[in-house]
Amino acid sequence: MRSLPEPRLVATDLDGTALRTDGTVSPRTAAAFAKVEESGAMLVFVTGRPPRWMGAVAGAVRHHGLAICANGALIYDLHTERIVESHLITVDVLAEVVAQLRANVPELLFSVEYEAGYAHESDFPHAGLGTAVADSLTGRPCAKLLARHAGLGADELLAAVHAVVGHLVTATHSSRKGLVEMSAQGVTKASALAALAGEHAIAAAHSVAFGDMPNDLPMLSWAGTSYAVANAHPDVLAVVDHVTATNDDDGVALVIEELYR
Description:
The structure is a single chain. By secondary structure, this protein is an alpha/beta fold. The chain has helices at about 15-20, 25-40, 55-60, 90-105, 155-165, 190-200, 215-220, 235, 250-260, and strands at about 10, 40-45, 65-70, 75, 80-85, 110-115, 120, 145-150, 170, 180-185, 205-210, 225-230, 240-245. Strands 5-4-3-2-1-11-12-13 form an 8-stranded mixed β-sheet. It has a 5-stranded antiparallel β-sheet with strand order 7-6-8-10-9. It is globular. The chain starts with 8 loop residues before the first strand and ends with a helix.
């Protein structure tokens, strides 16, 4: 007997949650995703990843469904591989945020995710993905601004960023290193998921969500039923309704198999 009613919407984070540590979709998880679609329910991938990192995932699910990318800033159609909706940080806000953080949190390095493309300062540790001088990073609206600090942990850096620019952008993190991700004010995984669910007349009470890191917290709080994988951040484990197995042990698939027998 199912412990929960069959949900109309399944929302899952990818890295550290539905994907294995090596970034792949296991055959068992791919089969579980297919069960959701076969039931007539809606499957949504809700990720910090930009669309340019969605190719392998799209292939694993046969290019079906929608993905909420960049922590809610971009809605991406996996079938057409096109962005269908954007919520961007404006140029003025982006420039102000970078200026304030430079003045108040020394030794930060920045990168940005645009709707199409990525740029980072020359010292930002993403070798091979292209470089841009600092001034060009704030020259056009972006989906996500990232700040890295070699000497601070992610939680400590997030607190510092929030204190300085929390009135201008929404900051979060999905890393155990000193990396913080910033979206336009009010843009989160939850805001995008709630809007999408509303378009399909699906109430939060009829949804289930899976996550592992602080950037998943808004989504997990919104969903009617929330799950963390066992390898999740302590802040996530502390607030979810249930805990399943780790990402490498197909924790998301285990729950889906129980829900959609």
